[in-house]
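Lab notebook, bench 4. Still working through the backlog of constructs that have no structural model yet. Next entry is a single chain of 381 residues. Request: give me the structure tokens for it.
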Amino acid sequence: MADPRPSGCRLWQTGGGDNARQGLFAGAVRLDLQSLRRLEARGAVQASVVFDTADRAFVADMAGGVQAFALRGRPLWRTQLEGSILATLAVDGAGARLFAGTTAGWVYSLRTPNGGALWRKAIPSKSDPRILSDLLYLPKQKVVVMSSWGGRFYALDAASGEPRYSWDAGLSPYAGAAADTGDRVYCLRAVRDEGVQFVRVTTDGKETILYRQAGSEKEAGRAMVAAAPVLNEARARVCFILNSGRESLLHAWSSETEAMLWSQRFSSAVRATPTILPDGGVLVADLAGYVHALAPDGTPRYRYASGCEYLLSGSVCDQTGTAYIGDPLGMVHCLSADGLGNPVFEAPRAIQARPSFDRLGNLYVASTDRQVYVFRNQTRL
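Model written out:
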């Protein structure tokens, strides 16, 4: 039987924390919203902040820069890459390196202590090489995974950048992949004339289609696949969002029985990756500006109205069930476990990246005004 204990991550080395992308911090957080620190970038920041074991925070921006900051905000180094950066970086803490993908189709490996380039590799593409999906580092295989708009996922050797294996990413791939602790990858792809497929890829590159959803005749210009899958290994399940026209479906799939546990329909499409709550419930932010909370069995708990016309990025949550999310108006919202929420901070421009926690529970909120806002955690961890 699956372990019902809550999961979570303390060291956030990829978008959403770890390779499961739960957005769940393994500790209690009480933020001092009056104590604010800023990390300055040279371009709009649309990628989440990630960290290494030395407490360096890595910020990637739309001007093509990757910067490192010390725990208290001191700038350490900046490296300029070719192309803008929308995809969240991935950190290999054991190897003291991080990986970045750009809109010019380049993947880079950088040294975390000084930003020096170890290698760079152009992703093969006959069409559009841009990399928009968050990167994923698989520690057992020592590969970095990403997709480009050329329509393929690639697993590159972390030491050399050479391709190990690749597989179909479908049409205009935006959603990142997730992986379990055995380095098995889970991803979504839209296939022309077939709809959407939920896929598992094993460490030898073999793929299995686990679920198919037929396409809709009224896609309304929305991406059928935008949010990454989210794993909850403690409960042996994977949650994923599939858009269909202006609606969306949240599916909970069992990795024990390899069957669907439940599905929940929303009246609006979803771009943001879901968040796993401490008890196994799920938070979903939609393109109508609402945050939906569901119980572990898929039963609706509450719906929070952000006051914004749409939400682009997912939320993050601590072990008390308190969640934080940013919106395109620049507002940061705090939601309690029972769904009571309100804006607690306003940035001058849009927030389009999922927030991040460092290992001390400080919250990092990236904005398109070229700033990352850092709110101090007052709880002793």
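Notes after review: The domain at 59-301 is CATH 2.130.10.10 (Methylamine Dehydrogenase; Chain H). Residues 1-5 have pLDDT under 50 and may be disordered. Flag for follow-up if needed.
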